[in-house]
Design a protein that fits this description.
By secondary structure, this protein is of the alpha/beta class. It folds into 3 domains: 7-38; 69-275, 3-Layer(aba) Sandwich (Rossmann fold); 280-454, Ribosomal Protein S5, domain 2, CATH 3.30.230. Helices cover 27% and strands 24% of the residues. It has helices at residues 44-48, 75-81, 101-114, 128-138, 153-163, 188-205, 226-230, 277-282, 329-343, 368-380, 406-415, 445-454, and strands at residues 9-11, 17-18, 34-36, 90-95, 119-123, 145-149, 167-171, 208-214, 233-238, 245-253, 261-267, 270-273, 292-299, 302-314, 322-325, 350-356, 388-390, 393-394, 400-401, 420-424, 438-442. Strands 6-5-7-8-4-9-10-11-12 form a 9-stranded mixed sheet. Strands 13-14-16-15 form a 4-stranded mixed sheet. Strands 2-1-3 form a 3-stranded antiparallel sheet, with no helix packed on it. A hairpin with a 6-residue loop joins strand 9 (233-238) and strand 10 (245-253). Helix 5 packs parallel to helix 6 (188-205) and helix 9 (329-343) crosses helix 10 (368-380). The longest helix has 18 residues, at 188-205. The structure holds thymidine-5'-diphosphate (TYD) and magnesium ion (MG). Residues 101-102, 125, 171 line the site of magnesium ion (MG).
């Protein structure tokens, strides 16, 4: 047998292992990310080998019949998970503190228990009293649900093996520790070893485990990046903590599509689903003000209307400041450059602030045209017609390019009562199915601007 390589340090960002310490990780080039590995690492695969010898199987020998999806009681969450919980999966739920992770999981477990499933909620952060106070806000609990306050994962393993619950919450992975790992709870080594153990438990006992993970400043789950690679599904809670809505997004899903979002609202009785997120996102938007444009993006399989806001002002300094909230900063810089070149505007001495309202983060390039028109509207102080929705990607030549699923987006706008849509000319078809809606095709930025200016 090959001699096991001795590992003394590993990178908490990418998991690179080495016998030497480096100031900069040789693999991912992160600085100061090498940390000492635990002294004695019990290999979990070694422990599993004491059982029967594993047998490779052909696909037709593998039965998937007895693992139907379990509904979580929340349509939004079921869709994000790809149709419910797959028994035996390991699901990481990340998000800022106070955004509602514990609340969501408590509600899911309440509904699982009511549906006849045996579930266990383990908290390393709150006392039983605090858990009860939260549970009282959510409603009545029925069925086989129990609570445990514990941070020693070895003890938790024993309990899970004895009690055999169908689903377990570990709230949060940063508070858990294993006695054979020397470092403190929350350290990369602990997080990694604890997740390893939970993975073994989930797969060998077919128990679904929800792991709560805290998020660092830069928006990733604290601890090693490995955590995301080890679990089956990664869900992130987004949204402004001070506003009431919360967006749950699947960024990784071995058993379903990624990119699906679920929209929730935090109320005095816990999280409620938002069945009509577009209307929710547009709630309270200013009408008749310059710099505000509505666009339609796709979030997974669902169209969502949102508001892009821009503010362009003369700078007090030499060069303009640019900020982007909810969208890519570089994209905003690029679009400003396209506007300078193709529309002949002088924007280098202007500050530009661009914002997606609602605390949502959007990567869909179909946002481009709306960002350009919002900036143009603010620059010229020219309010756009509030019943117009704008969809299209902008190329470097100032051309407006087609985007996928235009029909779904236009129909969503029609459903919410918009009367006009400015679309890429190449996407203009008769069968977009938006009856009563005026569709204007624009081939480049000039045409798009003429279309909105004519509306005035
Ligand atoms: P919580 O689930 O504890 O967040 P996390 O586990 O992600 O840290 O959510 C806490 C916040 O939610 C807190 O500010 C109180 C608020 N809240 C409500 O507004 N209504 C409720 O019914 C509950 C249970 C919490
Ligand atoms: Mg919590």
């Amino acid at each position: 047998m090959a001699k096991e390589k001795s590992v003394a340090f590993f990178c908490k960002e990418c998991g690179y292992e080495s016998a030497k310490w480096y100031g900069m990780c040789p693999s991912c080039h992160a600085y100061n990310s090498m940390v000492e590995a635990p002294k004695e690492r019990k290999s979990s695969s070694g422990a599993a080998r004491s059982g029967p010898r594993p047998v490779p199987r052909r696909l037709d020998e593998i039965s998937t019949e007895n693992s139907p999806r379990i509904g979580t009681g929340s349509e939004e969450l079921d869709r994000v998970l790809g149709g419910g919980i797959l028994p035996g999966s390991l699901i990481l739920t990340g998000g800022d503190p106070g955004i509602g992770k514990s609340t969501l999981l408590l509600q899911v477990f309440r509904s699982l228990a009511a549906g006849g499933h045996k579930v266990l909620y383990i908290s390393g952060e709150e006392s039983l009293r605090q858990l009860k106070l939260r549970a009282d806000r959510i409603g009545k609990f029925e069925g086989d649900i129990s609570f445990l306050c514990e941070t020693d994962l070895d003890a938790i393993e024993e309990i899970i093996r004895e009690e055999k619950p169908e689903a377990v919450v570990i709230d949060s992975i940063q508070t858990m520790s294993r006695s054979d790992v020397a470092s403190a709870p929350g350290s990369p080594a602990q997080v990694r070893e604890c997740t390893n153990l939970l993975l073994t438990l989930a797969k060998s006992l077919t128990v679904t485990i929800f792991i709560v993970g805290h998020v660092t400043k830069d928006g990733t789950v604290a601890g090693p990046r490995l955590l995301e690679h080890m679990v089956d599904t990664v869900l992130y809670f987004e949204g402004d903590r001070h506003a009431s809505y919360r967006i749950l997004r699947a960024v990784k899903n071995r058993f379903g599509a990624t990119g699906e979002i679920g929209v929730f609202e935090m109320t005095a009785e816990g999280l409620k689903e938002v069945p009509n997120p577009s209307a929710f996102m547009l709630n309270g938007r200013p009408e008749g003000t310059s710099g505000s444009v509505i666009t339609g993006v796709m979030e997974g399989t669902r169209p969502l209307l949102l508001e892009v806001q821009a503010l362009i002002t003369r700078t007090n300094y030499g060069t303009g400041r640019r900020t982007a909230a909810g969208l890519d900063y570089n994209r905003v810089s690029l679009l400003l450059a396209v506007m300078e070149k193709r529309l002949g505007l002088s924007l280098s001495d202007c500050d530009a602030y661009v914002n997606i309202t609602g605390g949502l983060r959007v990567n869909d390039p179909s946002l481009d045209l709306a960002v350009v028109l919002a900036m143009y509207s603010s620059y010229r102080d020219l309010p756009l017609d509030p019943n117009t929705v704008v969809i299209g990607e902008v190329g470097l030549a100032g051309e407006i390019r087609a985007v996928p699923m235009i029909k779904e987006r236009v129909q969503e706008a029609a459903r919410l009562g918009f009367s006009t849509a400015i679309l890429p000319k190449s996407a203009l078809r008769a069968d977009l199915g938006a009856r009563g809606m005026r569709l204007i095709g624009a081939a480049d930025l000039g045409e798009a601007i003429r279309a909105v200016a004519k509306d005035q």
